[in-house]
Design a protein that fits this description.
Radius of gyration: 22 Å
Number of domains: 2
Structural class: mainly alpha
Number of helices: 14
CATH class of the largest domain: Mainly Alpha
CATH architecture of the largest domain: Orthogonal Bundle
Largest sheet: 2 strands, antiparallel
């Protein structure tokens, strides 16, 4: 049944093959870069993580910008949140962090998706009753716009059919990836489409669909996905995102449900992603050439001993003048290699998340 949704016409199939070819060619090229494990990749991943958290929550109506997200994430001892937006941001941060660090060992299963949903809504006070559990009320996909208006995109799977359709989707994904009967990018694209169509939870479906996208991309060997924000691209194309879903959903449950527009949209996002990553990686390497060995050592000292003050660094590097250390710290902050908090004598420097 799910395979039939990929029964594209000849023209569409040619476009799909061409797009997959570009993405897979970059995948092979990137593997030689990533093996170097250089510090530029660590910086790119930090920035991509913040952008992903900010974009994915803003798509669903949150208003925190990336700087505000960064500030919240840096405050890892936070125990109280001032708004629902902050609750959602921190939940997404924890779920994404787990995926980025453990994707290879995570098995796609119903229990894991429920667990991931629990983590996603862990701090959301209004969602405690239904976190980690499938919906028990009908829901529909609604687009939230900046002016506060909403628009229903499509209706979703009935609650009593949710568990059955989710298990069918998970079984199909795992079998297709194991047997290589369908290209992994098509499997991932269809999985995300099905997940959004089923809309298995009362809340958090959009955010969880994007987490699953990252998980499946990493599990399928597309490691570059962690260094540039897929969610940020979706946010930039939010209108097209909803229009594409709405178009292919119009034939939901019929023999005409061929998801060609969604797959082409999904693949085009990955093409944009690799273009942005190439540019960003090159610029980081060029910028990194201006970081000397002493500045690299200071960055490492801060990451190991955070939080630290200027006086702490001066004691660690007694042969370097205070003015030179100040300039080094200013450069590291400007280049987003460390973070600065506080003012004047209370200023401290910490590892940039």
């Amino acid at each position: 049944m799910l395979n039939s949704k990929l029964a594209f016409d000849i023209v569409t199939m040619q476009k799909v093959i061409q797009s997959i070819g570009k993405i897979d060619a970059f995948k092979g090229k990137w593997s030689s870069i990533e093996n170097k494990s250089d510090r530029y990749l660590r910086e790119l991943r930090k920035i991509a993580t913040i952008e992903s958290i900010g974009s994915s929550t803003r798509i669903e109506g949150a208003v925190l910008n990336d700087d505000e997200v960064q500030q919240l994430i840096n405050n890892i001892k936070v125990t109280e949140f001032k708004s629902r937006d902050e609750e959602e941001v921190f939940g997404y941060y924890e779920a994404l962090d787990i995926i980025l660090d453990n994707a290879a060992s995570i098995q796609l299963s119903e229990s894991y998706i429920l667990q991931l949903h629990t983590i996603l809504l862990k701090y959301s006070s209004k969602d405690q009753r239904h976190k980690g559990a499938y919906k028990n009320l009908p829901n529909s996909v609604v687009a939230n716009y900046p002016d506060g208006s909403q628009r229903t995109i499509f209706n979703t799977t009935a609650p009593h059919l949710t568990q059955k359709e989710m298990q069918e989707m998970i079984d199909w994904v795992n079998q297709s990836l194991k047997e290589s009967t369908v290209h992994p990018l098509l499997v991932i694209g269809l999985c995300v489409y099905e997940f959004l169509s089923i809309h298995p939870f009362q809340d958090g479906n959009g955010r969880l669909s994007r987490l699953l996208t990252t998980l499946l991309l990493l599990k399928s060997g597309y490691e570059f996905a962690q260094y540039i924000s897929f969610e940020h691209i979706i946010e930039e194309r939010k209108k097209e995102y909803y229009q594409t879903l709405m178009h292919d959903q119009s034939n939901r449950g019929t023999d005409k449900e061929i998801i060609s527009e969604w797959i082409l949209f999904f693949l085009s996002n990955l093409e944009i992603l690799i273009e942005k990553l190439e540019v960003k990686y090159s610029s980081y390497k060029e910028r990194g050439n201006y970081i000397n060995e002493r500045q690299q050592q200071i960055q490492q000292y801060i990451e190991t001993n955070q939080p630290v003050k200027l006086g702490d660094i001066a004691k660690a590097y007694p042969d370097v003048s205070i003015n030179t250390l100040k300039k080094d710290l200013q450069l590291l902050v400007q280049q987003q290699m460390i973070s600065k908090a506080g003012e004047k004598k209370g200023t401290v420097y910490v590892k940039r998340v």
